[in-house]
């Protein structure tokens, strides 16, 4: 009887998912874009011609950009592709980072987040030009990516982009990204290179065009309509006496892991699937205490409200690393943290010391694709974590000097 109920419930969940727009509406049964390589609406040319045009434009921009990050070890090229307009600066942008391996995740993310996105892509050597091809493909073949997404590129000077015949690739919207990407190396396993999460996050934040940012990982998807709901939330609270607190508050979005290939759109479905193990709190196997201070049980028990609002406020506690929406003016991430460990905790710690409040949103949530499991991580994870743990201790001592009048500490 219980098994039957679970099956019926998941079937109901699938029906709910099917009535919402997602990336499948653009794909055929084989996962390829339905559109044959005829003329692309609005472009006046075939998709392969449009992709080649964008590739050439981005390469020309890249060759004329001579900017470095603050350490002087990375070349950065902001806004290599950007929408022609932003509807309003009083808005919120998803800010995220990736390598070419995970750029495919932008397709689903762009369908679930109907608003601006600022994306930093880490690349190197010949891979840079295949990354550029991937940007062009996504912008031509997926309208939501094209109209909403800024792309920025960063590369180590020791592995600067090298010439490639990528302009001669025959790429069209009838292909998938993996059909033409040159290198599918995982972020942490690029031979001889460290993945600079925090530099990439800062690049995406600093070149976003909106007053608020939503800091997430690229392989996550938000609850349905969260973009518009948060914009409405901002407009409503602007007229309240407490409006001055908005800039000093980070709005926490509870994060979950989902084992299903279908992602729920509403909180009630998340709660139901959570009860049957299809969904669980984020990082529960990897680092339970890194997320437990979100207080998932309290979030689950909140009375149902029609509008997005603050469910409750929490005091930050080490080592909580929540995903959040906040003012674009929040303290930036410390770029010394690279590879695995402490890269997000350090920034959350600084937010606390700087006096920011942490407010959990009542109806919002994030879903990570698949369960995070310890045995699926790269071989050097422990070594990197131990190194960054020492850096974090130093970082916490430095905050005492940076915020001498603060009574808050990262304990």
From TrEMBL:
Catalytic reactions on record: 3-O-[beta-D-Xyl-(1->4)-Rib-ol-P-Rib-ol-P-3-beta-D-GalNAc-(1->3)-beta-D-GlcNAc-(1->4)-(O-6-P-alpha-D-Man)]-Thr-[protein] + UDP-alpha-D-glucuronate = 3-O-[beta-D-GlcA-(1->3)-beta-D-Xyl-(1->4)-Rib-ol-P-Rib-ol-P-3-beta-D-GalNAc-(1->3)-beta-D-GlcNAc-(1->4)-(O-6-P-alpha-D-Man)]-Thr-[protein] + UDP + H(+)
Membrane topology: Single-pass type II membrane protein
Keyword Transferase: yes
Cellular component aspect of the GO annotation: Golgi membrane
InterPro entries, alphabetized: B4GAT1 (IPR043189), Nucleotide-diphossugar_trans (IPR029044)
Alphabetical UniProt keywords: Glycoprotein, Glycosyltransferase, Golgi apparatus, Manganese, Membrane, Metal-binding, Signal-anchor, Transferase, Transmembrane, Transmembrane helix
Gene3D superfamilies: Spore Coat Polysaccharide Biosynthesis Protein SpsA, Chain A
Top-level lineage group: Eukaryota
GO biological-process terms attached to the record: protein O-linked glycosylation via mannose
Gene Ontology MF terms: glucuronosyltransferase activity; metal ion binding
Cofactor: Mn(2+)
Subcellular location: Golgi apparatus membrane
The protein's annotated pathway: Protein modification; protein glycosylation
Family: Belongs to the glycosyltransferase 49 family.
The protein's name: Beta-1,4-glucuronyltransferase 1
Species whose genome carries this gene: Pinctada imbricata
